[in-house]
Amino acid sequence: MTTPATPAARALRVALLGCGTVGSQVARILLDDADNLAGRAGARLDLVGVAVRSLDAERDVELPDGLLTTDADALVADADIVIELMGGIEPAKSLILRAIAHGAAVVSGNKALLALDGPELYEQADAAGVQLSYEAAVAGAIPILRPIRDSLSGDRITRVLGIVNGTTNYILDQMDSTGAQFDDALQAAQHLGYAEADPTADIEGHDAAAKAAILASLSFHTRFALEDVSCEGITSVTADDIAAAAEDGYVIKLLAIAELLTDATGAEGIGVRVHPTLLPRTHPLAAVHGAFNAVFVEAENAGELMFYGQGAGGTPTASAVLGDVVSAARRRVLGGPGRTETTTSQVPALGIDAVRTSYCIALQVVDEPGVLARIAQIFAANGVSIETMRQRIRQDGPDGATTAELRIVTHRAVEASLAATVRQVAELEVITAVSSVLRVEGI
Ligand code: NDP
Ligand code: HSE
């Protein structure tokens, strides 16, 4: 039997790539909490260098002289554990591959890289027998990947629903609680430092899509890439959509959803999608406010589980990074890398057309006899069943004529049937506009 080395007897060389929002907090904790970490890891975690772009930039951590370097290559070549917190695709990817080739365990928070090139990195890590872990890449501080990978590995996950982007949750929450318009809520998010100066990756859903690909891969034991994720951001959600949803008892959230589905032939596959979604206010995810994240997991035996916490920020995210570092150190001390993911299932990725969900469709219609019947007929012809229909009359048509807004919530229907329904309804001359089509979960 292998006896773990005592902290004093063993030291591991830890290289940190990046000293920004997250990296600076990881460095601080490695330095300030060294004794505790050594006790938990079974070895001292010696920070041997911190790679950055500029040696002169101000840092949120005071580092001992000589630790900062611009030579990331040299650092990676001589470390037991490499922590990549630079972000971006290159040079992060090449540095990770080099670290793996040198036999170092790698910890990263880089969801963009993992969603794009994860399969290549996992294969290289498996081939080299080293551990590649990335708890921080999805939902910041929330321990979600390890529970899915390890704690639920004896169960069968059927669905994962997540609020995994803090910026968009903050924006939608502001619009819901204050009636703010999208642009004002976005500005507030930027002011508070949640959104980037260029917030495209957040508001267009790309950041959430990268996280959805990672969640789906681990939950369904199959590698899913960014291109397997159907993605819609929140830029078209209006204050009117939010207010109308509120009147009906719903809240709008940007959800990342990965679920087991059957296609038209009855074959199983996985649908992975990100889009604004109506949730009843009673759903646990509806209570996730501000920039917080939460992931709701449904498994055959465990039932429903929810994980909640801070999805971003230097110190919270550093907590997840250090959990991975300690885990990598323990495995190094005890021997054996442990598996970072399994890909034994190989179920196909199904497109958004195979998704079955409920929908809320807002229509502006001419207020005259027979209109409802014609609309209902199209829904029926496409096999889309209506759950509720609400009509609001307005005196705002041309020449003071009345128009009506119809809000129709459907039972679960196949996306392709709903799309055909909306297309055909939009062609009716009594329809003046299809103002919104939003998916509804949790009813
Ligand atoms: P920052 O932009 O704050 O920091 C990036 C750091 O990497 C900087 O220190 C920068 O150096 C360094 N760096 C960038 N490019 C290079 C390069 N080519 N060579 C050497 N050093 C380089 O990023 P964050 O800390 O916010 O994010 C880091 C990673 O963590 C990203 O992958 C991000 O997606 C992920 N993440 C971030 C979260 C957050 O809340 N911020 C939450 C969850 C994950 P310099 O300082 O000199 O410019
Ligand atoms: N931009 C991301 C967010 C940061 O708003 O959640 C964490 O990945």
Q: What is the percentage of strand-forming residues?
A: 25-35%
Distance between the termini: 53 Å
Largest sheet: 12 strands, mixed
Q: Quickly give the CATH architecture of the largest domain.
A: 2-Layer Sandwich
Reported by name, the CATH topology of the largest domain is Dihydrodipicolinate Reductase, domain 2
> What Rg do the Cα atoms give?
25 Å
Kindly state the mean pLDDT as a whole number?
93
| Share of residues in helices | 25-40%
Count the E strands.
18
Number of helices: 14
Classified by CATH, the class of the largest domain is Alpha Beta
CATH homologous superfamily grouping of the largest domain: Dihydrodipicolinate Reductase, domain 2
Q: What class would the helix/strand composition place it in?
A: alpha/beta
Bound compounds, please?
NADPH dihydro-nicotinamide-adenine-dinucleotide phosphate, L-homoserine
Shape label? elongated
The tally of structural domains comes to 3
User: Which runs of at least 5 residues are low in confidence (pLDDT < 50)?
Assistant: 1-5
